[in-house]
Write a structure and sequence with these properties.
There is one protein chain. By secondary structure, the protein is of the alpha+beta class. The protein folds into 4 domains: about 100 residues, no CATH class; about 90 residues, no CATH class; about 150 residues, no CATH class; about 60 residues, no CATH class. The chain is about 20% helix and about 35% strand. The chain is built from 13 helices and 27 strands. A 6-stranded mixed sheet has the order 5-4-3-8-7-6, with helices on one face. It is elongated. It starts with 13 loop residues before the first strand and ends with a helix. The N terminus and C terminus are likely disordered.
């Protein structure tokens, strides 16, 4: 059986009422050329515009007064161009993009495709190009910098101590939370840092951040720069002075008796175990812990009897677990420390009969022959009111603070990680002792370093190499490190191109 296919229907054609060319019927009865000749849907849209660009900070002006960063042929720049074109609300925008221009020509061309209904049932689509001229104009921030009067608020951070470990901790917290993004500049000063801001609100944001990460107090002052008598507008410069508690990690302190009783009956002679948003103290004789916040410290202040720079080196002769528990307080006991009784000698008196007996919280780390740093109260001339009021039987002969695992050069060579910096302290590059002590603190305290971003050093590190170190040195595992992002890395460039 054969199937008969129906003939294809023939669509009728008409002549254009203007030029007479044969066309298919449409609501206007005109060809496309005649429709475009009679109708221009882009006549109310300007074909030229102006973009203001600041060469100092490489940002574009987003009217009325906002400056935004935007790369060439980026979505941000296209949004800014479309915002500058008037009359787009009268048509329907179908597509938008950039037409190529030479990067140094100071011309940016945006290619648009729009639609508009010109007659009932007739919609016209048209492509056109809007050319923008890039004009250089200095933004307010760069203008203040050039006028040498660019800051309106200053935050001065100071700490009256001989060790910078608290500042290195603060630096890593600032980098982790990007609290320095709104600063105009950061300059080192005696015993601290100076942060400059263009707005008072930005300075107060940094103040709130500092009070949440370190125990400190601050005061405010302001200076009148100018006064407009007609509008009654005052122009001030604000200065905020922030003082961090003068206590660092591994310092030996003597608490006032009332404060020690308030902290659960902890001993008056304590060691500063950690300084974060609180001061964490540990009693070396009982391993009792106590936390002191900023308000408590400034209400009943105390000074350090000995900082980590003035500790003495001792050699462990014999260790034994404490047979008698002397704990009478009500505070929390550390589960990570073990109270032991040890016999020690000063490193320069090894071989003599001068041995010292003391109790320490480092019993889980110390073995005979180990080197440990401590504070010798017998040979120290300490001028402190709190320690003068203590009884002689309550004062220990030696307070052991920390164990020495190896010399600093050996630990620096085996260190497989690094930290980022603000770039304001030249001493960091020279690996000074304060910074090396801070790195050792991170290796020895996992809870302390959990707050920071630790980066793997440049170059691949074989896992077998890293695990082959037989010496029992504190170290940071590869799983805790982040890979540092290098813009010049070819892999990074390929990922960036693929994302674009």
């Amino acid at each position: 059986m054969e199937y008969i296919k129906p003939e294809d229907s023939v669509i009728g054609s008409i002549l254009c009422c203007d030029c007479g060319s044969q066309i298919q019927p449409n609501p206007t009865n005109r060809c496309i050329a005649c429709i475009r000749a009679r109708n221009d849907i882009t006549e109310d849209i300007p074909k030229q515009g102006t973009l203001y660009f600041c060469r100092g900070c490489e940002r574009y002006l987003d009217p009325p007064g906002t400056w935004v960063p935007a790369a060439l042929e980026s979505k941000e720049l296209l949004r800014l161009c479309l915002k500058k074109i008037k009359g787009l609300n009268k048509v329907r925008l179908i597509d938008a993009g950039f037409a190529w221009t030479e990067p140094h020509s100071m011309r940016i061309k945006a290619k648009l495709c729009v639609q508009k209904e010109i007659q009932a049932g007739a919609v016209l689509q048209q492509d056109f190009i809007v050319e923008f001229i890039v004009v250089h104009q200095m933004c307010d921030d760069c203008h203040r910098v050039e006028a040498k009067d660019f800051w309106r608020a200053l935050v001065q951070v100071r700490q009256k101590t001989d060790h910078k470990r608290t500042f290195y901790y603060l630096e890593q917290m600032i980098l982790k939370h990007k609290a320095h993004e709104k600063t105009l500049g950061i300059k080192p000063a005696t015993d601290g840092l100076d942060f400059y801001f263009a707005l008072e609100s930005s300075a107060r944001q940094l103040l709130d951040f500092l009070t949440s990460v370190v125990p400190c107090r601050w005061t405010q002052s302001k200076k009148l720069i100018s006064h407009d008598i007609h509008s009654n507008v005052y122009n001030y410069k604000y200065s905020f002075s922030v003082e961090i508690v003068p206590i660092c990690k591994d310092s030996v302190v003597c608490l006032p008796s009332k404060l020690a009783h308030h902290l659960g009956g902890i001993g008056q002679i304590c060691i500063v175990h950690r300084v974060t948003n609180h001061i964490l103290l540990i009693d070396p004789a009982t391993a009792q812990l106590a936390e002191i916040d900023s308000s408590t410290f400034w209400r009943t202040p105390f000074r350090a009897l000995c900082s980590s720079k003035k500790l003495t080196e001792f050699i462990v002769i014999e260790t034994a677990e404490a047979a008698v528990k002397y704990f009478k307080g009500q505070g929390q006991i550390s589960n990570k420390h073990q109270v032991s009784e040890v016999w020690i000698q000063r490193s320069n008196e090894v071989g003599s009969d001068n041995m010292i007996f003391c109790r320490t919280h480092l019993g889980h780390l110390l073995n005979p022959g180990d080197t440990v740093m401590g504070f010798d109260l017998r040979l120290s001339n300490v001028n402190d009111d709190n320690i003068d009021k203590m009884k002689e039987d309550e004062m220990p002969d030696v307070v052991l603070v920390k164990k020495v695992y190896a010399d600093k050069s050996t630990r620096n060579k085996r260190r497989r990680w690094k930290l980022k910096h603000l770039g304001v302290d030249d001493d960091v590059g020279s690996q000074n002792n304060d910074y090396t002590d801070f790195l050792e603190d991170l290796e020895e305290d996992p809870q302390y370093r959990a707050k920071f971003n630790i980066y793997q050093k440049d170059g691949e590190i074989p896992a077998s190499d890293y695990e082959s170190e037989t010496e029992e040195l504190p170290k940071i595992g590869l799983e805790e490190m982040l890979k540092d992002l290098n813009v010049d890395d070819p892999d990074v460039k390929e990922e960036k191109k693929a994302s674009e």
